[in-house]
Specification:
Layout: H1 2-21, H2 24-35, H3 39-48, H4 55-63, H5 71-83, H6 90-96, H7 112-128, E1 137-148, E2 154-165, E3 170-178, E4 189-194, E5 197-204, E6 209-220, E7 225-233, E8 242-247, E9 253-260, E10 268-274, E11 282-287, E12 295-300, E13 306-313
Parallel strand pairs: 1-9
Antiparallel strand pairs: 1-2, 2-7, 3-6, 4-7, 5-6, 8-13, 9-12, 10-11, 10-13
Helix pairs in contact: 1-2
Length: about 325
């Protein structure tokens, strides 16, 4: 009996920790697990409260793929507090507390809608620069280094690309940076670090999207390979909780490294993948933080269309 009791206490302990520090999706998942309710039963209880929410939406909420934002969804969250026997305002607080929001009041988690809006803006900005599809380049390798600053903000990133042209005349690459909610693209800086120089830069303040031309200074022939490196200084938003990179085409190796300032170390880090912004997150597992360099990384041997990311929880 002692053994069974200890195991029964584990979900409850995880729930108490999640309710104190969040984030919302972790707390919701812990609460559902602690009560032992399948999502179909949760949905049934919500309907008895007069709230209609699909099982798919509940699944997305507890995986962090979407956040409740509409009035009906927020009504569901308040009902969940009662259904899951949680303290009043415990889940709502995690959606609205300052740690989850920026100074502008926008939630720091990226919803499916915000990603779609950013994608539409990105297509427009790229078209303005005359960039379409893959720009005539195939990715052989891409190493990305992300820096999280002492104030838990996305300080900046550096990208090292190895590409091969699959048509004649390619002479540029268009880099994309999607800052955290509340960021200011106008205050960001693009640095051409190796084998390129900065060309035109376009941005959208509302979605936090910045695109920049990186000019090679030479025209590649089909089959030519090229190496170049650039960086983007950000540091314009609030607390960062994840970094995600999206791929529209298959390619070679991708490595993502996130390094944290020694004054602001996360409690835990996880890797994840998504087939699309609307899909649930999968392939999730915890990443150990390296002692001397305070960093975590993932390596994808072969890029596939979709998203790859690292998320982290703060104490």
């Amino acid at each position: 009996m002692r053994h069974a009791t200890e195991h029964a206490d584990i979900p409850t302990a995880e729930l108490h920790t999640a309710l104190r520090g969040g984030p919302f999706h972790v707390a919701l998942r812990a609460a559902i697990a602690a009560r032992g309710l399948p999502l179909q039963r949760v949905q049934h209880h919500l309907s008895r409260h007069g709230v209609k929410v699909g099982v798919t939406s509940l699944s997305y909420w507890q995986q962090g793929a979407r956040r409740p934002q509409r009035p009906e969804s927020l009504r569901a969250v308040r009902a969940l507090e009662e259904i899951l026997q949680l303290p009043d305002e415990s889940l709502i607080r995690l959606l609205t507390e300052s740690g989850e929001r920026t100074a502008t009041g926008r939630a720091s988690g990226r919803s499916y809608r915000s990603l779609v809006e950013a994608s539409d803006v990105l297509n427009r900005l790229q078209a303005d620069l005359g960039w379409s599809l893959d720009g005539g380049l195939h990715t052989l390798g891409h190493h990305e280094r992300v820096r999280i600053g002492a104030h838990r903000q996305l300080a900046g990133r550096e990208s090292h690309h190895i590409v091969r042209a699959h048509r004649d005349g390619v002479d540029r690459f268009v880099a994309v940076h999607h800052g955290d909610p509340g960021c200011s693209p106008r205050a960001m800086t693009v640095h051409a670090l190796e084998n390129c120089r900065t060309g035109r830069v376009r941005l959208d303040q509302d979605t936090g999207v910045l695109v920049a031309e990186l000019l090679f200074g030479t025209r590649l022939r089909s089959g030519d390979t090229f190496l170049f490196r650039y960086g983007i200084e950000d540091g314009t938003a609030g607390v960062s909780r994840e970094y995600v990179h999206g791929f529209g085409f298959p390619g070679g190796q991708y490595a993502l490294q996130v390094r944290f300032d020694g004054a602001a170390l996360p409690a835990r880090c996880h890797r994840f993948t998504q087939h699309s912004p609307a899909a649930p997150r999968s392939g999730r597992h915890e990443l150990p933080l390296s002692g001397p360099h305070h960093s975590v990384h993932v390596v994808e041997p072969r890029i596939r269309p979709g998203l790859v990311g690292i998320s982290w929880d703060w104490e």
